[in-house]
Amino acid sequence: MIRAIFTMAVAAFFFGNVTGQNNTSYWQQHVDYTMDIDVDVDKNQYEGEQTIVYTNNSPDALDRVFYHLYFNAFQPGSEMDVRSLTIEDPDKRVGDRISKLSPDEIGYIKPTKLTQDGKKLDFEVVGTVLEVQLNKPILPGEKTTFKMKWDAQIPLQIRRSGRDNAEGVKLSMSQWYPKMAEYDFQGWHADPYIGREFHSPWGDFDVTIHIDKDYTVAGTGYSAENVMGDNNYTKVKKGKKGKRTWHFTAPNVHDFTWAADNEYIHDQYQAANGVTLNFYYKDNPDIKENWKNLQPKTAEMLEYFNENIGPYPFKQYSVIQGGDGGMEYAMCTLITGERKFGSLMGVTAHELAHTWFQFLMATNEGKHEWMDEGFTTYISNLAMAKINGGENLTPQAGAYAGYNYLANSGKEQPQTTHADRYASNRVYGIAAYSKGAVFLSQLEYVIGKENVAKSLKRYYDEWSFKHPTPNDFIRVAEKVSGAELDWYLTDWTQTTNQIDYAIKKIETIKDGTLVVLERIGLIGMPIDLDVTYTDGSKEQFYIPLQMMRSEKPKADTNITRTQLKDWAWAYPTYELVIPSTNKVQSIVIDASMLMADTDRENNVWELE
Ligand SMILES: [Zn+2]
User: Fold this and answer.
1) Which end of the chain is more exposed for a tag (fewer CB within 10 A), N or C?
2) pLDDT digit string (tens) for 279-311?
3) Cα(184) to centroid(ligand 1), Å
4) Is the pTM here over 0.85, yes or no?
5) Ligand 1 centre and the CA of 344: distance in Å?
């Protein structure tokens, strides 16, 4: 029996460990990069050398690792190509363009040598993923060093990355290097690059780029050129044979992006907290005024996010003309520059906001696309409403309209769908951006505006420079508000259940007005009922949702609010009596319109 007891003790120890990592003891891998890149702008190729120091903070021994080789997606027949050719609503920027790339237009990353602690490793390139079997496992707590050399060709710009974009920017270099995949409590995330979304480990980057001396290089990290009034960064001496050398360091990021052009204008603007804003745009008279006017506005946006989420923790942020739309990266964005001013500003606000909801609170975008896109949409809508005059009382109206369309289309898929595996780009877009923004906006209805504002700040305090999950956010909101919110996270993000409450019946009775409410949709909600009397006076009634085990604080208005007994979810109807001698003129469920009720017509009753 002693042996059996011993075995059980060991089993309990391991089992305890396993459940521990899923639920309570957070850890994350750490990967430091040093890279030296030699660019040939005539051939659109570069040679790379990389040293990665990998620290295994997981409780697991790792016997293999994976790298992303994103440029390999830009080859005829790749998964990205075939997906674009077969999806019902292909992204116009991609369409069939990958299938038509010639050999000198395709992208590739070809590793030529890879070692672990000085010893050669076997590897296999499988599409956009490099599979590497290790000679010796990396044990928990251990560090190991990988060195790689590779040849790369920069694809003609199709999506996000590449050379010669539509506005003539020479190099938009995102997802351009062999990038270590993330290993976390859910295991490896070596997702193939099919359409979108990234997830990678945190680390420090040291990147040296040799490029034709006429080019200006912009991007992630700090250099002598992009941090004002800081002498820590010195210009690198002239490079070899007509080239110039650029050196960047980027502490604690999970990506490194850059762009280069021989016609960039580089402007700088001093923002709050000593942050340098850098603007790089083509020397084109048609866009110059917009790009000048954008500069003080970007400083205002930065200040809004500083105050409403948490301080921007890096020394610089660069708005760079490049890419094919707007895309967020660490300390920078690549954005097409020939747009109307409103669009230039709106997209910059969105991409800058991603600094918080992706480059600080780095959710796994593939699995939880609504957390980065939705939260970013929510906060940048608020920032734009404020900067544009603050008079827009419904900054999230577009998000609600998008969600409502999707919910009534019959095509909705739950937000737990992997970003690459929605049936269409449209369904992905609305689920991630619109329904994701409504998640936060509607949470204002559930726990109150103040509590949502506090939750965002506490989320920043607890989860910056980490990889939070949906549960981590909702736990923060629970702690801030005192409400149980797992029902909200589950129903809203893991199902396509809908909200539909109705006023079923109104009847004048001896003691006042009898009101019967009905829950038609499957999602339960607390109810705000606004009553207006024939004499013009107003009163509010609040019906808590029982499983929330808490009440929303009363909003700061001088209208009286009466709290009624709980409504438990399973009961389809709820009766209340408005005990007034005053005659009721109208009753409205959720006058704030923050609840995403899919049929609002039955929310209102009016005296005939
Ligand atoms: Zn976005």
Assistant:
1) C
2) 999 999 999 999 999 999 999 999 999 999 999
3) 23
4) yes
5) 14
